[in-house]
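Running this now, will post back.
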Amino acid sequence: LEMYFAAKEGELVGKTIMITAGPTYEKIDPVRFIGNYSSGKMGFALADECVSRGAKVILIAGPVQQTTYFPMAQYIQVESAGNMYDAAGAFWGSADAAILTAAVADYTPEHVADEKIKREKTGEMILALKPTQDIAAFLGKQKNKANNRKQVLVGFALETNNELLNAEEKLKRKNLDFIVLNSLNDKGAGFRHDTNKISIIDDKGKADYPLKSKAEVAVDIVDHLVKVLKQAE
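Update: finished.
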């Protein structure tokens, strides 16, 4: 018996949407990690919005303090970029669309110490980092291969400079259907805030939206997703 909520009506009835949310923690030793300031608020708002429109949602979340309003079809808690890569890869084949809101670490320590690293008299410590696997690029390569349906892949870009150029380049390189650009240059937008200011970029151009609550931003993003899914049918 599957104990999850799905609205009986709505544009996403019969659709499975996979959403990644929150930060990842990359272990240095048993007590320290490399992380980021993502709260998961945007991803969780998107998960609730999709469920309210009838979707079956698979939510893959890093370490967050958030809860959803609706029960999810599947809720997978992960810690590291590697964990998130494995989970997203495992569930992508059964999804009609994925929205990748998670702020995934680009680098992870080459070696994880078994014991807490003590501050030695020598002073500085050098941490060697290696790149993590790119989740969006991997899913973009696998897109439409798992079953006989067109899958929709949505990415997020958080840029501090050359925003549009970087987002457009990411859209093509990772085989995304559209990308949501968050600007850190706008007050009240981005990590840890309850509001966000986005632009949606696809091959037809760019649409800018005003500063709104993350719940309202989720409505705009899912409205766009619904359109793209309809075109894919």
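Residues 214-232 form the longest helix (19 residues). More later if anyone needs it.
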